[in-house]
Amino acid sequence: MIKVLVAGFDGSMGNKTTNMVIENDKFELAGVFSPFAGKDNLREYTEFQDQNVPVYKTYEEVAAQKNDFDVWVDFTVPSAVYQNVKFAIENKISPVVGTTGLTDEQLVELKALAKENEVGGLIAPNFGISAVLLMQFAKKAAEFMPDVEIIELHHDNKLDAPSGTAVQTAKMISEVRTAHHQGNPNEKETMLGARGADFEGMKIHSVRLPGYVAHEQVIFGSLGESLTIRQDSFDRSSFMTGVALAVEKIGNYNELLVGLENLL
Ligand SMILES: NC(=O)C1=CN([C@@H]2O[C@H](COP(=O)(O)OP(=O)(O)OC[C@H]3O[C@@H](n4cnc5c(N)ncnc54)[C@H](OP(=O)(O)O)[C@@H]3O)[C@@H](O)[C@H]2O)C=CC1
Ligand SMILES: O=C(O)C1=N[C@H](C(=O)O)C[C@H](O)C1
Questions:
Q1: What dihedral angle (degrees, nearest 10) is formed by the CA atoms of 246, 249, 250, 252?
Q2: What is the value of ipTM here, to two decimals?
Q3: Model's pTM, two decimal places?
Q4: Which residues pair with 121 in a beta bridge?
Q5: Which CATH class is domain 129-233?
Q6: 3-state class (DSSP) for residue 249
Q7: Which of 163, 231, 232, 238 maximizes ligand 2 atoms within 8 Å of its Cβ, making it the mutation to test the pocket?
């Protein structure tokens, strides 16, 4: 059995993940983690009355029981994810991280730490197969159509913008695209932000509205034609297959990987 701790268990993704772990015969829910939890055991929560699982609130509590955990699944917040992943690696608990917001510098540091500790881990901006495919297709398209704008659309509880998926899409496109300005070089924004965020000349636009979950559209323009690639996550269940795959496989690695495609 793979022993799993879910950090952010009380959030939208953390709740879905907690239920997925409980229902998966290959996994044991060995703990949940949030500094803000008001209870000491998961069975005190109405939804989990049959689950005798400790609620951990501090790193010290987790460290004292670190042999109880194989995998740390993180669906928390951008402001906490770096410290959470650093702690997990230092305690030889494999991080499987959905939380977005890690900087490039933090990623480099965490990769080195994982190598030093010979701990496998995964940072996945998106666990949905439709999003993983969208990023791959977008990179291919950019080889031939280098003028591109990204529109990501999310629920209006999301803390960060642009989305981690949109940033990862732009990074993958930039591997095959020469950085260049798009639009009139003399263009002026008469309203600040009108042209969106800029990534090596590509523009990224973030929509936040009730009714949305997670969606991304990549639009390519060229002489006399356009190509649009779109993915939609209508429900957070779309991420669970990828999370389960990562939890199951991450023990086979001894380095920190970025992107679910590394495990497919
Ligand atoms: N990679 C992927 O496929 C996906 C990634 N995400 C990402 O996952 C993250 C979470 O998304 P979502 O579930 O919608 O967000 P929510 O706000 O619904 O949940 C976040 C949870 O984390 C808790 N939390 C805050 N700080 C800490 C901490 N230091 N340690 C542990 N838990 C903490 C929050 O508690 P409290 O409310 O008390 O602050 C909350 O319960 C976001 O970064 C999002 O971008 C989301 C979906 C898919
Ligand atoms: O906050 C979300 O919901 C999501 N966040 C991730 C991101 O920022 O890319 C993944 C997915 O889009 C859902």
A1: -170
A2: 0.98
A3: 0.97
A4: 256
A5: alpha beta
A6: helix
A7: 163
